[in-house]
Amino acid sequence: MIQSMTGYGKAIAELSDKKVTIEIKSLNSKALDLSTRIAPAYREKEMEIRNLISKSLERGKVDLNLWVEKKENSSNATIISQSLVEGYYQQIKEISDNLSIPVPTDWFQTLLRMPDVMSKPESTELTTEEWSTVQKGLAEAIQHLVDFRKQEGEALEKKFREKIENIRQLSLSVTQYETERITKIKDRINEALEKTLNVDYDKNRLEQEIIFYIEKLDINEEKQRLANHLDYFIQTLEGGSGQGKKLGFIAQEIGREINTMGSKSNHAEMQKIVVQMKDELEQIKEQVLNVM
Fold first, then answer.
1. Residue 231 sits in the same domain as residue 133
2. How far apart are CA 66 and CA 22, in angstroms?
């Protein structure tokens, strides 16, 4: 089954004093283009995180966000230094007395804004148990994204099959106009000769030339090659993930055969059918860019 490169995955790793949220998004790209925003406590694991992602997500523009939220009952509250508050208070009061400057009306706000009065506790070293929990959350987020890609891939496969079948039926509908086209070409050539030439000419030779001309406009080979390409597209579609580039190449070959049929058709109804086939193929090409 094919996979889309578009996907989204999210997971939360619960720890005693905090929760770690992991969010992964992906869009189409020619290769794996990974961008990360990781909370400081886990930046030392960035290479390991990148390796985990690259093993599961072969292609796509991938954005990873990993952030931490402290729980309400967390003991890691910001620390207010009482000794610094007392020291600043004494200094400000002394300066006020010496220079006759009024003391602050709101002592508390003034003192809390002084340098180093408020500080966060020293961050603890990342433990094996904590990283194991976060790692499981990361794996869960990646799996959610892969599941999302598979669902999108199913929808794409259904669309591709529909469009390929439409092209196949349009190609078959050309047949009804081929005999009519040959008759019209012969009549047009004969009519042109009768109007422009007042001399006798070798009708057998003319017939041979008309046959040669019509053979150059024959599209049976193009129709056969087109049918083969359509079959190959479906076979590749059933080959599993990682077929995006190959499907794109096959779509290009389908386009070449359709273009050749259009240049050879020399018939209004056939050219309309060719335009319809091109429209169906264009929709395939747009969506193939999103296949992994």
1. no
2. 5
Amino acid at 253: E
Task: Please check whether residue 1 lies inside any domain of the structure.
Answer: no
Name, in order, each residue with C-beta under 8 angstroms of 255's C-beta and a sequence gap of 6 or more.
278, 281, 285
- Distance between CA atoms of residues 269 and 273, nearest Å: 6
Sequence-separated (6 or more) residues with CB below 8 Å from residue 287 = 156, 159, 160
Decide: pTM greater than 0.85. no
**Across the strands, what pairs with 12?**
21
Q: 117: Cβ–Cβ under 8 A, 6 or more apart, which residues?
A: 80, 81, 84, 85, 88, 111
Instruction: Tell me the DSSP string of 218-275.
Output: --HHHHHHHHHHHHHHHHHHTT-SS-HHHHHHHHHHHHHHHHHHHHHH-SHHHHHHHH
- d(C-alpha 257, C-alpha 271), whole Å: 13
Q: What is the pLDDT of residue 205?
A: 65
- The residue segments making up the domain with residue 176 are 153-288
Provide the pLDDT for residue 113. 81
Q: Per the structure block, which two tokens stand in for 98? A: 């010496």
Alpha carbon 8 to chain centroid distance? 11
Residue 257: per-residue pLDDT: 95
Domain count, the chain: 3
Taking 70 as the pLDDT cut, the residues of the chain under it are: 72-77, 119-124, 186-187, 189-216
The amino acid occupying position 265 is S
Q: Which helix (H) or strand (E) holds 141?
A: helix 128-173
